[in-house]
Amino acid sequence: MLEQARKREELLEAIEEYIREKRYAQLRDLLLPMAPADIASVCADLGEEVPLMFRLLPKELAAEVFVELDSDEQEMLIQSFSNTELKEVLDELYLDDTVDIVEEMPANVVKRILRHSDPEMRKSINEILKYPEDSTGSIMTTEFVDLKQSMTVEAAFKRIRRTGPDKETINVCYVIDEQRHLIGLLSIRTLLLADEDDIIGDIMETNIISVHTLDDQETTARALSKYDFLALPVVDTENRLVGIVTVDDAMDVLQEEVTEDIELMAAILPSDKPYLKTGVLETWKARTPWLMILMLSATFTGIILTRFENSLSACAILTAFIPMLSGTGGNSGTQASTAVIRALSLGEVRFSDLLRVLWKEFRVSLCCGICLAAANFVKMMIVDRWLMHNPEVTPLVALVVCATLVGTVLCAKLVGCSLPILAEKVGFDPAVMASPFISTIVDSISLLIYFRFATLLLGI
Amino acid sequence: MLEQARKREELLEAIEEYIREKRYAQLRDLLLPMAPADIASVCADLGEEVPLMFRLLPKELAAEVFVELDSDEQEMLIQSFSNTELKEVLDELYLDDTVDIVEEMPANVVKRILRHSDPEMRKSINEILKYPEDSTGSIMTTEFVDLKQSMTVEAAFKRIRRTGPDKETINVCYVIDEQRHLIGLLSIRTLLLADEDDIIGDIMETNIISVHTLDDQETTARALSKYDFLALPVVDTENRLVGIVTVDDAMDVLQEEVTEDIELMAAILPSDKPYLKTGVLETWKARTPWLMILMLSATFTGIILTRFENSLSACAILTAFIPMLSGTGGNSGTQASTAVIRALSLGEVRFSDLLRVLWKEFRVSLCCGICLAAANFVKMMIVDRWLMHNPEVTPLVALVVCATLVGTVLCAKLVGCSLPILAEKVGFDPAVMASPFISTIVDSISLLIYFRFATLLLGI
Questions:
Q1: Distance from first CA to last CA of chain A, Å, rounded?
Q2: Cβ(B247)–Cβ(B230) below 8 Å
Q3: For residue A16, how many other CB atoms are within 10 A of its CB?
Q4: DSSP A212
C-alpha cells in the first residue's frame, strides 16, 4: 500500500509538470497505457486540469475514464464539453453506464444528455429510469445478444460478430421466441465447442434462473454471486426478456449494500457518497437523528439511577462499576447482534431458526459471563481492594458486581441475537438493531439487575 | 423472502417423501432442473440422506453440487464414497475448487483425495497448497487458456476448442512466450471480431494489469472489482504466468473479508464458519478475549469515579447522567470510526488524508454536539426538573451536563476518526479500532470532562 501511494504521488507530479510545460504529447503517452480506473483516480486530485487531460485521450478511452469518475467530476466535465464532444462521449458509453450518470446529474444536465443521445438510446434510458431505485430494473442493461432457437451455430456467430461490438457482454447469449419470451441461454463456450450446423434450440440450456425487473437489486446481486454467473437475465411480469445484469454491476451493488449495512449498524443514515466527498452539513444530517434518539432514550437509565440514589449513597463504591457493567453489556450484545445481522444478510439464518439461535446464545453467554465474572472477582480483590487500598471493595460487593455481570451478559446476548431476527420478520432492516441500539437497551437492563442484586445481597 | 422460505419447505417435504417411498426416478427428475447451489442448500437440511441423493445425480451435476456444500457435508460424503466414486467426482472438479476442499479436510481425507487425483492434478494441488493462506496464489486456478503470439486467430480457436472444456474460463485468453512470461491477453470477444488470419501478437492487449502470487487476496479481489475484469492473471517473481483468479472467487473473497471486518468491528475474533455451524465453545473462544480486555480496561473509569466519589456525594444527581454521556460519546465515536474504517477499506481515505479527516470531523462534531446539547438542555428542564419534580436538576447542573456533551462528542469523533488511520499506518487492521474499543476510551475521557466542568461550574 505504501509503495502504491508513493507511485501515485510521482505520477501526479509528472502529470502536473507536463501540463504546466504544455508537453501534451508526452502526457498522452504517459496516460495511454494506464487503466481507465487508474486515470479516473488521478483525475480526482487534479481539479481544473481534468478537461484538458480528457481531450488528449482517444475517444474510447475517454469514455471509459468518464464512467469511472465521481459524479461531481462528471458534471464538471459535461459542463465544459461542447455539444459535439458530449455526443462523442455518449456514443461510446454502454447504456447502463449512461443511466447511472443520468440518475446522478441535476435536471439541466440530464436534459442536455438526453438531447444529444441518439433516439434509440434516449428511449432505453427513459425506460430504465422509470424503474424504482434499488430495483433490478434500475441496474440492468438492455444491450445483450439475443438469438432465435431455429438458428444454426454458424448463424449465431454471424449475429454475434455483427451486433457484438455494441453489447455489454457476449459471454452469455439469450434465446427468445417471437414474443420476446426468454426460452433458453447459451454461453459463448458452448457455442464455440458446438458444431457449425448444430441448432441453437438443441444445445441451449433451458433451466434458466432469471430475476424480475422489480426484484431488489441486492437479491439479484446475491443470486449472481451464489450461482457464480457472469450475467443474469431480467424478465418482466410476462416473462419477456427486457435486460441483463452483469457481474461487475452486481459487485458494485454488493459493495454499496455492505456499506449501507455497516453505516446503519453504526447508527448513521446511509449515503452513497464517498467519505471525503460528503459535506459537513450532510454528514451532520446523517449522524444527528440516531444520536438524538439514543441520547433521549438514555432518560430511562437516568430515571433508574435517580430512583436508587439512596442505595448509591449508602454504598458509594457501587457507582464505580457502572461504566464497566454497561460497557461489557453493550459489547456482549454487540457481538451477538452483529453475528446475527451478518448471518441474516448472508442468508445463513432465517426466522425459523430463532429458537436455535436463542439456545446457542444462551449457552455462549453463560460461558462468557462466568468466565468474565471469575476474572473480574480476582481483579476486584487484587487491584481494587489490595493494590488501591480501597476497603469499600468487600468480597460481598465483588459478588454483587460479578453476579450482575453474568446476568447482564446473558440478557445482552439474548436481546442482541433476537432483535435483529424479529426486526427482519416485521420488515425492518435488521442492521438498525446493532451496537448503539442494543447498548441503550442493555444499559437499563444491567442497572436494574445491579440494584436488584445490591438490595438482595447488601441489604441496602 | 417469505415466499422463498415456503417454497423451500415444500421442496424439502417432497424430497423426504420421495426418499421414504423410494421413488428415486421422480426424485431425480425433481433435482435435475435445479441449480447446483440450490441442491446444496437443500442438502444442508437433509443429513443422512445426502449420499443417497447424491448418487442419483449425473456425474457433472454431482460434482457441481459437491463444490457448493459446506466442508462438514463434503467430509461426510467423501467418507461415504467408494474409491471409484471419489475419483469420478474429483475428475469433474476444477482445480481451484479441489484445492479449496483439500484445505478444509482433515489429513486422512486429504491423503485419500491426493491418492485418487491424476498425477498432474496432484502436482498442481500441491503447488497451490504451498502458497500462504489469504495470498492470491491460494485462490488462483492454473486452468487457463494460453496462446502463443505467433498463432493466427484460426489456430487460437482450434486450441480453445481442444483445451477449452477443461478450463475454468475461456472468456479471457493469455499470451505467453517460450519462458511462460506473460506478454499479452485477449478477450474471446476480440478473437471473435477478428479475421481468421489475424496474428495474435498483432491484436492482443499488451497493457496488462497482473497480480503477484504473494499479493493479499483482498487486494487482488478489489483490483478485479475496480477494473471490472472477469479474471486477473497471476505471475511469479520472474513475471511468469502461473495462474488466474476469476471473478466468482473474487466475489467470495470480498464477502469473506467484509464478514471478517464486521466481526472485528464487533470485537469478535474472525472465523470462516457460518453462524449456525460454529459450536458454542468455538463462539465462546472467539468472543471472550476482547470482552475480557475491554472489561479490564474499564478499570480506568472505575478509578476516575472512585477519585471523584466525594464530588458525586456532594451532588448526587450528577450520577444519573453518566450513562447518557458515555452512551452518546460511544455512539459519536462509533459513527466516526466506522465511517473511516469503511472508507479506508474501500481505498477512499489514505494516511495522507489524516488532517482533512480530522478537520471534517471537528466541524461535524461541533454541529452534532451543539445540537444535542441544546436538545438535552430543554429535555432536562422540561422532563427531569418539571415533569419528574426533581429540584436537584438546576439550570447550572444542566449546563454542566450539556457542556460535557459538547466536549465528549468532540473528543469521541476526533479519537474515533484518527485511531483507525493510525492503526493502518502501523500495520494493524483498522477494523479493530471500532465501536467497543473507541467506547472504552471515550468513557474515561467523558468522565474526566464531566468532573472538570462540575468542579468549575458547581464548585464541588
A1: 59
A2: yes
A3: 14
A4: E
Residue A228 corresponds to which cell in the numbers above? 457464480
Cα torsion A65, A68, A72, A73 to 10°: value is -20
The three three-digit cell numbers of residue A435, written as one number = 451496537
Average pLDDT, integer, range A272-287: 86
Domain range annotation of chain B = 2-130, 146-255, 298-458
Query: Do the bridges between strand B231-235 and strand B211-212 make them parallel or antiparallel, or are there none, so unpaired?
Result: parallel
Locate the chain A residue with the closest alpha carbon to B294.
Answer: A328
> Using the beta-carbon criterion (under 8 Å), do A298 and B328 form an inter-chain contact?
yes
Q: How far apart are CA B367 and CA B361, in angstroms?
A: 10
SS3 A175: strand
pTM exceeds cut of 0.90: no
d(CA A176, CA A29): 45
- Please, are residues B291 and A332 in contact by the beta-carbon 8 Å criterion? yes
> What is the amino acid identity at position B300?
F
Contact A356 B276 (CB under 8 A): yes
* Residue A111 CA from chain centroid, whole number: 30
**Complex ipTM, two decimals?**
0.76
Q: What is the pLDDT of residues B57-90, one digit of tens each?
A: 888 888 888 888 888 888 888 888 888 888 888 8
pLDDT at A366 over 90: yes
Q: What is the pLDDT of residue B1?
A: 40
Residue B452: alpha-carbon gap to chain centroid = 43
**Whole-angstrom Cα distance, residue B62 to residue A329?**
47
Calculate the alpha carbon distances from B379 to A305, B311, B318, B321, B383 in Å. Answer: 17, 24, 15, 12, 5
What is the CATH code for A2-130? Answer: 1.25.60.10
Pairing of strands A172-176, B146-147: unpaired
Which residue in chain B has the smallest CA separation from A366? B284
Count of helices and strands (H, E) across chain A: 22, 6
A440 touches chain B (CB under 8 A): yes
User: Cβ separation of A5 and B351 shorter than 8 Å?
Assistant: yes
CA–CA separation, A448 vs A455, rounded Å?
11
Q: What is the CATH number of domain B146-255?
A: 3.10.580.10
The top-level CATH class assigned to A298-458 is mainly alpha
Which of B342, B136, B229 lies closest to A36, judged by CA? B229
- For residue A182, the cross-strand partners are A176
What is the sign of the dihedral through the CA atoms of A351, A355, A358 and A363?
negative
